[in-house]
Amino acid sequence: MNLIVDIGNTNSKLAIFQGEEIINFETVEYDMLMEALESYLIEFKINKSILSNVGAKIEGLDDFLSNHFYHVNLDFKTKLPITINYDTPKTLGVDRVALAVAALNSSNGKNSLVIDMGSCITYDFITSKGVYEGGAISPGLNMRFKAMHNFTESLPLVTIRESQSIIGKNTEMSLVNGVVHGITSEIDSYIDKLNEEIGNISVFICGGDQPFFVNKLKNSIFADQKILLRGLNIILNYNFDIRNESTTT
């Protein structure tokens, strides 16, 4: 069994893979992560683990995983089943790398774009040949709401809600319209431009805000909330296989 540990900007996710199937998944607060992992030692027969961390530093986490399993701490030095064609690979988020790996695996031989709607919205393009070319980063939903509130004197802090009309009749609904329609237009425009320049592409979308937006987009997309975990599982197995090959030759 494979243990996948994904530490994001707001929480951590744990998954257990049996082959390519997720047999256990949960979201865990940072301060409960080590306790959850201790229970996993008892509950599951884990032999491999991988850590992707773009959020909080958890004291002792990497040592814990390394001491109990074959372990991969995903960083820019990790061996990958794709080629990174990015000017600054050291600054490329490991979550974006894992998303690209998963997208390639699910794209049926097509070029692909994966959009992650988290604290920021990331766009990552990978060719059908397995070359990661880069993408874009923009503020996420809550970041946009907070920015308008924090950088003005009178605009309120609003939370996500459905817009009843494109014309906001009060300040709160005007803010909602600006953010929600701005994001949907941004995503559809980015997809349209890629299709114009490159041709028909497979588009995957994930992240905490994905459920709210998935039916608002005009373009055809594949929604997969666990695509990042699948990419991490692929990278873990890839590195484990390389190690086994090197020890038998």
Q: What is the ordering of alpha helices and beta strands?
A: EEEHEHEEHEEEHHEHEH
Helicity range of the residues? 25-40%
Q: How do the strands line up in the largest sheet?
A: 6-9-8-7-10-11
Question: What's the CATH architecture name of the largest domain?
Answer: 2-Layer Sandwich
Observed structural traits:
alpha/beta; 7 helices; single chain
Characterization of this structure:
This protein is an alpha/beta fold and 249 residues long. It folds into 2 domains: 1-73, ATPase, nucleotide binding domain (Nucleotidyltransferase, domain 5); 75-249, ATPase, nucleotide binding domain (Nucleotidyltransferase, domain 5), CATH 3.30.420.40. 38% of the residues lie in helices and 25% in strands. The chain is built from 7 helices and 11 strands. The protein has helices at 33-43, 61-68, 94-106, 141-150, 171-198, 210-213, 227-247; strands at residues 2-7, 12-18, 21-28, 48-53, 70-73, 83-84, 112-117, 120-126, 131-139, 202-206, 222-223. The strands form 2 sheets. The protein has a 6-stranded mixed sheet. A 5-stranded mixed sheet has the order 3-2-1-4-5, with helices on both faces. The two termini are 25 Å apart.
